[in-house]
Design brief:
Layout: H1 15-29, H2 43-51, H3 56-62, H4 69-72, H5 75-88, E1 97-108, E2 111-121, E3 125-131, H6 144-157, E4 161-168, H7 179-186, E5 187-193, H8 196-215, H9 228-231, H10 234-247
Parallel strand pairs: 3-4
Antiparallel strand pairs: 1-2, 2-3, 4-5
The structure holds iron/sulfur cluster.
């Protein structure tokens, strides 16, 4: 973990209020429309949500599965989220906001890093992440792989501050009926301060990966995180094992 981010505090933003308004807007706007993404699912649920004036909390609960990028990137949510952050951070400059900024950075001749920043402003970046961790094990801490990704975006855009907006998809299975509770329990905003050393190391790693690929070599050590091997496909695991055997001293 970056030393700058050891003492990470959770920014206090009322996500519930912001998102509730966005959902109301969402339902009103879509009265005469069906999303193709809704079509595979229970038609009763979709029809009920449109035709009956059920409490907004229940409608929101029906859309738990959408509580990530699409919702957070709605203009209304973004505006309010950014206003809250700007206020807390005492930022007085004008804020320009861009959703989904694409990055293409030539790291070595003809070799590029590409990135996709969820929310870009001239004062900070926001990266939206989801987790399915069980609530009882979820500490709302910054994890290294989120930190490294966002830190790389910060370095490439020459910014100093970013936020991980972390949403726990267990909300989808929650039987909590008070939606305010759902947001308080299942969402958080974690600040990330740019770390030059981490950025340099990340770029150095990317360069060595390009160079290894040029050479057709598999000698870089791995994994970065213990759990990665478990999620590798059988074929990759087998190949990786054979290469390791070839390269280890007899
Ligand atoms: S099994 Fe997969 S994750 Fe583990 S070291 Fe090999 S390639 Fe990396």
């Amino acid at each position: 973990m970056s030393k700058n981010n050891d003492e990470n505090s959770i920014i206090d933003v009322n996500l519930f209020e912001i998102i509730q308004e966005a959902y109301e807007e969402h339902f009103n706007r879509r009265k005469n429309k069906l999303g193709c993404s809704e079509l595979p699912f229970c038609p009763r649920k979709i029809i009920i949500s449109r035709l009956y004036n059920i409490p907004i909390e229940n409608k929101m609960k029906m859309l738990h599965g959408k509580i990530h990028h699409a919702v957070v990137q709605q203009p209304r949510v973004l505006t309010q989220l950014i206003q809250s952050l700007v206020k807390q951070l005492n930022i007085t400059d004008d804020i320009n906001v861009k959703i989904e900024k694409y990055l293409l950075h030539e790291l070595l001749p003809g070799k590029y890093l590409e990135g996709h920043i969820d929310v870009y402003t001239n004062a900070f970046l926001i990266e939206i992440k989801t987790t399915a961790a069980l609530l009882k094990y979820w500490s709302k801490d910054l994890v290294d792989y989120h930190l490294i990704q966002l830190n790389t975006y910060l370095g490439l855009t020459k910014q100093k501050l970013g936020f991980i907006l972390l949403i726990n998809l267990r909300a989808y299975f929650s039987d909590v009926t008070d939606f305010n509770d759902v947001w308080n329990k299942y969402g958080c905003i974690l600040p990330v301060h740019f770390d030059q050393e981490l950025f340099d190391n990340t770029l150095a790693k990317a360069k060595s990966m390009f160079q290894e690929m040029e050479r057709g070599s598999f000698s870089l050590p791995g994994p970065e995180f213990q759990w990665e091997c478990k999620y590798c496909s059988k074929e990759i695991q087998e190949f990786c094992y054979q290469e390791r055997k070839k390269n280890s001293p007899a």
